[in-house]
Amino acid sequence: MLKKEFDTSYVGFMKDGAQWLVENTDIKLVGIDYLSVAAYDDLIPSHLVFLEGREVILVEGLKLDGVKPGIYSVHCLPLRLLGAEGSPIRCILIK
Predict the structure, then answer these.
(1) Containing structural domain, residue 32
(2) Is residue 33 within 8 Å of 58, Cβ to Cβ?
(3) What is its main location (predicted)?
């Protein structure tokens, strides 16, 4: 995240992986510490799988440096933007 150059080799979901997660788990939030939860080679199809059902919340650009292992509650506080498909959020962890 802190590099000036965009790195296309980051880890993200391909369409089939996103589809499997949506259909076979109860996961409601997917977060990643880079710019997209979708793999660079499969950006649009992967996002569409997650966003079609509107049941999975995507959080991109998480910064979890220094968070100690443990059980936390995560609270994501989005900006309400009319007509937008996403918004900046602030996530907080409560132990």
Answers:
(1) 15-94
(2) no
(3) secreted
Instruction: Tell whether 83 is covered by a domain.
Output: yes
Q: pTM for the complete prediction?
A: 0.77
The mean per-residue pLDDT over the stretch 67-75 comes to 92
Alpha carbons 22 and 15: distance in angstroms, whole number: 11
The C-alpha atoms of residue 94 and residue 37 are separated, in whole angstroms, by: 23
What residues contact 4, with CB distance under 8 A and at least 6 apart? Answer: none
User: What's the distance, Cα to Cα, between the start and end of the chain in Å?
Assistant: 25
Radius of gyration of the chain from Cα atoms? 14
Q: Please, are residues 34 and 60 in contact by the beta-carbon 8 Å criterion?
A: yes
Q: How confident is the model at residue 42 (pLDDT cuts 50, 70, 90)?
A: confident
